[in-house]
Fold this protein.
Amino acid sequence: MQLQLTKRPQAAVAALLVAGTLATGMVSMTAPTAHAASTSLRYQRGYSVQGSWLCYGWSNGAYHCTQRWHRSGSRLVSDNPGWVPNGGSSSARTSTASHHSSNVNTFTTGFSSAPRGISQWAWTGHGSYSEPRGTFQGYSWGWCTSGAAMMAHDNVSGLGFAASWTRNAARRGMATGYVPRAGATVVFQPGVQGASSSGHVGHVVAVYGNGWFLLAETAFWWNGGGFGRVSYRYAHAGSGVSFIY
């Protein structure tokens, strides 16, 4: 379970719940949830333990919370680092509350230092826009697969759900790898850097240092994005991230 909230008075009950249950894109519900209300989750800059949740508050007022975490000595370690990043010792106050150990993600992310101005959920300076209506390379309009297919330089038709794109592309003889390149299609495995349970795909626009890159994507609820909208986000290479060149 993971929650993304914004710094507003109703944040404790207005949760963006990432369920990842439909097709190939992120799924969100902005209606109040009893679970969110009962936990009284709140914005706090940096790391905090709130009941059974490990939360990280970003500088722009958003905060992500996950129940997939554990303690390692004095450190609070996120088992879902694509959502709540790991970054050294936490200054959060200690808590004796138990936490959930089920459904723990097995991937890890090398979270290296980002170039100045770039971070996991930073504003990119690029506005979002509506994806042109149509079917792109056979993928239904509005989902991440249609957006990636619209922007792809090569034929990516018939690659299936987002998470299977790299594997199926390699079987087709297309070049694949793990190093970001401008113009490549990026493929995120389920749960990695905000991807749904079906994975996520996008288009690499620019590449920076330390594995960071800028991608354009459809059906990702961040920086003005969502179903049928193309938006921009910073992401980084690591476990669970691959590319089709």
In short: Confidence is low (pLDDT under 50) at residues 6-39, 88-112. The CA atoms of residues 119 and 126 lie 15 Å apart. The chain has two domains: 2-78, 129-244.
